[in-house]
């Protein structure tokens, strides 16, 4: 049971950044904006969180820096795509490349430094429950935030008037504009939220998952988060389930290598991305279900009537 508990703890740690990045992108896409720059925002959050923690000695300041870095990068994306009406796909790809380059430059002096790990927060009483206690009630702050965000986003999108407006904009931005809904302003807020979540996911990588700075440490997790939104059919609870499924696949490579199963390490390292491709292929076969859940205005530019 000790081995199983250790494996489950690593799965939780590996899944948390995927859940965070995907839940932010889900809100962004529900508003009709396709942001492919999640990877760039994650890596910027990771490097800024590590640098801020090294400068102040407080990982909580690092969390704020990571959120701020992702949010600022998302505002750049919003300005280019919403104000200047640049192509969303090309802009997202460009910002990912930009984020990887800038993060490498910022973090060059911090490579090899040991970081400050975010301490776990034990919930009195509940953390003492055998097996489930350490798994669910003795985790770091970012884990609790990820669960709260999934619950909050689900409630916000489907139980509030503001959430209805976001979904209306994503389904038909022209009709939403005709009804007096501020399409551009709402999309800016959704993009900002998505960037903040991606930055927080990056902070988790450099403060919890691997408390140090390694260039390109996001390692494609932003792309997995994008696929996870499609896998979840733009539903928050499915993002949570899918995030832990992908987290289990990601961490299985490490345990398989530790057990000496004789499987080539290159194949094990590719497993998360192979799983991503397989899931997307399976989803594409159910075209009717995909069309029902996909925001109809996703990726389409909006220019208000003048």
Could you characterize the architecture of this molecule?
A two-stranded antiparallel sheet has the order 1-2. The protein is globular. Helices cover 73% and strands 1% of the residues. The chain has a single domain (2-119, 130-293), classed as ABC transporter involved in vitamin B12 uptake, BtuC (Orthogonal Bundle), CATH 1.10.3470. With 306 residues, the chain is mainly α. The protein starts with a helix and ends in a 13-residue tail after the last helix.
Which structural traits does this protein have?
single chain, 306 residues, mainly alpha, ABC transporter involved in vitamin B12 uptake, BtuC, globular
Strand tally, please?
A: 2
Question: Count of helices?
Answer: 13
The pLDDT mean sits at 89
How would you write the strand order of the largest sheet? 1-2
Q: How does CATH name the architecture?
A: Orthogonal Bundle
CATH topology: ABC transporter involved in vitamin B12 uptake, BtuC
What's the end-to-end separation, in Å?
65 Å
Portion in strands? under 5%
Reading off the top of the CATH hierarchy, the class is best stated as: Mainly Alpha
Structure classification: mainly alpha
SSE blueprint and pairings:
Blueprint (H helix, E strand, L loop, with lengths): L1 H29 L7 H19 L2 H25 L4 H19 L14 E2 L9 H5 L1 E2 L1 H19 L1 H11 L1 H6 L4 H27 L11 H11 L4 H23 L6 H21 L1 H7 L13
Antiparallel strand pairs: 1-2
Helix pairs in contact: 1-6, 1-9, 1-10, 1-11, 2-3, 2-4, 2-9, 2-10, 3-4, 3-9, 6-7, 6-11, 10-11, 10-12, 11-12
């Amino acid at each position: 049971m000790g081995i199983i508990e250790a494996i489950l703890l690593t799965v939780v740690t590996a899944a948390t950044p995927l859940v965070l990045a995907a839940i932010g992108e889900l809100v962004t896409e529900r508003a009709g904006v396709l942001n492919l720059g999640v990877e760039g925002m994650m890596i910027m959050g990771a490097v800024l969180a590590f640098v801020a923690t090294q400068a102040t000695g407080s990982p909580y300041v690092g969390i704020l820096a990571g959120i701020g870095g992702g949010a600022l990068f998302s505002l750049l994306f919003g300005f280019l795509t919403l104000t200047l009406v640049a192509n969303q796909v090309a802009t997202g790809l460009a910002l990912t490349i930009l984020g990887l380059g800038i993060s490498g430059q910022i973090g060059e002096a911090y490579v090899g430094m040991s970081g400050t790990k975010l301490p776990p927060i034990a919930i009195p009483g509940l953390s003492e429950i055998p097996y489930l206690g350490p798994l669910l009630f003795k985790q770091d702050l970012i884990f609790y935030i990820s669960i709260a965000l999934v619950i909050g986003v689900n409630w916000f999108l489907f139980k509030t008037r503001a959430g209805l407006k976001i979904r209306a904009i994503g389904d038909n931005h022209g009709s939403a504009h005709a009804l007096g809904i501020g399409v551009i302003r709402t999309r800016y807020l959704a993009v900002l939220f998505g960037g903040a979540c991606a930055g927080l996911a990056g902070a988790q990588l450099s403060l919890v998952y691997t408390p140090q700075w390694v260039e390109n440490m996001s390692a494609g997790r932003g792309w997995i988060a994008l696929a996870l939104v499609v896998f979840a059919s733009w539903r928050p609870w499915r993002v949570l389930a899918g995030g832990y499924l992908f987290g289990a696949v990601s961490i299985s490579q490490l345990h398989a290598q530790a057990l000496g199963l004789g499987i080539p390490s290159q194949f094990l390292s590719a497993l998360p991305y192979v799983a991503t491709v397989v899931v997307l292929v399976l989803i594409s076969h159910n075209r009717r279900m995909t069309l029902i859940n996909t925001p109809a205005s996703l990726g389409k530019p909006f220019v208000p009537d003048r």
